[in-house]
Structures
1.
Amino acid sequence: MSETLILSARWGKPGGAALESYRADGGYAALDKALGMEPSAVVDEVKKSNLRGRGGAGFATGLKWTFLPKDIRPRYLTVNADESEPGTFKDRYIIEHDPHMLIEGIALTCYALDIHLAYIYIRGEFAKQARVLEQAIAEAVAAGIIGPKLLGKKDFDLQIHVHRGAGAYICGEESALLESLEGKKGYPRLKPPFPAVVGLWAKPTIINNVETIANVPWIVKHGGDAFAALGVGKSGGTRLFGVSGHVNRPGVYEKPVAYNLKKLIMEDAGGVLGGRKLKAVIPGGSSAPVLAAHEIDISMEFDAVKAAGSMSGSGGVIVFDESACMVRALARLSRFYAEESCGQCTPCREGTNWMEGMLERIEAGHAVAADVARLEQVANSIAGNTICALGDAAAMPVQSFLKKFRPEFLAHAELRRCPCGDTGWGLTQEPRDAVAGPMRYAR
Amino acid sequence: MTNHAGGVEGLPREKVEQFDRELAEIVKRYPPDRKASAMIPALRLGQTLFGYVSPAVQALAADRLGTSPSRAEEVATFYVMLETHEFGRHLVEVCTNVSCSLTGGDRLWAYLKAKLQLAKAGTTADGKFTLREAECLGSCGTSPAILVDEEMHEQLTPQKVDKILGGLT
């Protein structure tokens, strides 16, 4: 049986991003079908599908939609295209290769939820992808697919706009995203109230990830049950897994939501570079607790990875071979969180900088064993003590690296230097295309 | 600082007029009573037209969007892609986050510093290049990656970087 491809089926097709090409392949048929359905029936299909949010938290999409208060208008949709979690690089390919699938998903979601204004919040660094979206939206408006009517026949005003960020990881956090969209700095809001109740401009707002919304056309076309059947338990469908780091075939692989992590790395991504031994895997974006090599024979389904002590998060899988220095890797990740902390909460603003500095000293051989314990204390003091999840996201790598690879940290303290020296980022320093070939898509 | 005839102290009048024309298009994306939502695009536009987001540009954007200069300043200083100081003619940003560095990003950063004769992030003496590290650019499967003047280049080697920078004036 060939694997079902929902999201990546049209990737790589010449001219595939154009409206004409999308329609020739059956695009916007799901919207046409939905216009013959009650909006609530569309919501029911999404609930039945067991679609869970692909941005990182894995929250049930249909359930999130039901949090909208019944009697408050207007409501808004914002699509989160802020893809900034290190190791995550999937939404951009949906946008680059099949932007109309996303636009159809937005139109369906808006029809289902009686929303007439939608924004795609895209990170500032995705300049090309923003242009692709603007072009696709312009095509859809010109063709009368969206605008005063849907598909030129149903009176339903829908406007979709692209809003570019300007470089801030925190704006992927949904309430910071809203602040940013309101023209402010990206400070996360206290919750509750959740955005579904008090969101953009204080109105009820649904925020979904690009990949989440891109699944909606398939769900409407084939039914929620068919989508649910591709997964297990309360997780339906396929997912885009991005595999990067020390593998022979880095790339984005679309697989059933409960696909085996070891198989993904060792078979699909071609195994570890240079035939070296696997050391560690971060399974779901940089914030996800690291797994040691012997812990990766698990399903990537949200609850399964949680049971293994980590999270499948954004599906960004980062692979480290035996030559990688875990202290150096963690020091770099900690610098990232220190850079990206918005500065609103003291434990995160101060703590991420402390962790960065302590890790730089450990890596440089300027620390003693007691500093390793102190580092752990700082991480524990941040976790759970901040308004948004960035504090936890910064603490979890530190806590898990120390738990799984503590001897490496202590060796740095004892030797007063990095035992790996120049090879701390691993033995693979040849140009990427020479060692790994071009990026693969889900084939 | 601003006056409603369209001029702003220290900013060339014709560029302010261009700013106003382009901003009028941008604000159409937001409800009429929510113009201040256009702050990021307004400041980006200002950076494109005036070189960087100076206090005068911040004041211009705030004035046109009906909000306070402090609101413009807090946005201008929060987002890394908005520059509040002058920088080189070309901005080169190298991703050194984990996925890139596992496959050569850190080495590319060292190569670029040596090539541009900079000990750390900064601007070359001739003002041609500003070089700095970037956080994850979402190019982990096509690493290493850099941004040059906000455009992404991927699967890089020193030779490819030489070619990209060599094509700039």
2.
Amino acid sequence: MSPLYIARSTAVAARSLDGEMMIMSARDSTLFTLNPVGTAIWRRQMEKRRVQRSWSGRSAPSLKSTRWRP
Amino acid sequence: MGELATAAGQEVIIEIGRMPVQVRSESPEFLRMLVGRYSGFLSPGARPVFEFDVELVAAGRIAEEDDVAVRFESGRWLIKRGDLFAEWEPMSRRGRIVQSPNPYSIDTALRIIHSLILAREGGLLVHAASAVRNCKAFLFAGISGAGKTTIARLAPADATLLSDEISYLRRNGRGYVAYGTPFAGELAKVGENVQAPLAALYLLQKWPENTMEPVRASEAARMLLENVLFFAHDTELVGLVFESACELVRHVPVYRLTFFPDQRVWEMIV
């Protein structure tokens, strides 16, 4: 099995509001909102981490995106 | 009268949000138009933060872009739209605007210039009506048709209109100050050149009855961002604007305001 890594992009700005992580892609102005599971994952990505096999079989975290069109 | 004679022509200094911008032109007619349009926002003695020379050309297509395009290239900002070309250098704080002698192109250029200035200092230009009442500023944001013009038109006599279209916010410590702007909307009424601490942001929705409920910070940030005016394709500044919106909703109460379009809605705005 090939190792997978997830890591924060350097081209995003992120803020936690009310326990929800909001992430703005500065590259294309897309705004993402993570649910609590996604927020927990995001918070753990302070450094590049290996995705654990134990994630398999669990429900995937949801992610909503909205295009910011000022 | 806000005109000053200079060797290179004449100029006006238009001060919005305490940011004086000098506009110079060799056309007395164009300057007279500016003096009339921005009459409440002229500051002849102010030291400008940016200086622009306006080059007037015959009406016609000036740039290929249909929608406004704003980008930083080779040390200068570029604004391009069919009727407008502008460029300026942040280092020298000077630039030029090429347009036909109409009021709309310069108005667009000023909005974009201010949005870029504000982005670096934690401020925002918001598609919102705003007013001062009891020495406090209130912002009413929403998409077209949400009721910005309506709520501005319904404002009572003791409220001072800052804008019915584009509101100007600057950071002040942990709070924000709202300033009047000359950027008018459907009401075609220029805002008063006054300022006040921002007390609340209302997200507008027309409804058969008047209701007001707090909005969670995450939703408030989302809604606010939808109404922020920012045009530049610039990674750093987009991040700064995002941070500013998040900061604002952390420090300023945000409510969803549904209202029936009559003056009773203002009983809730105090």
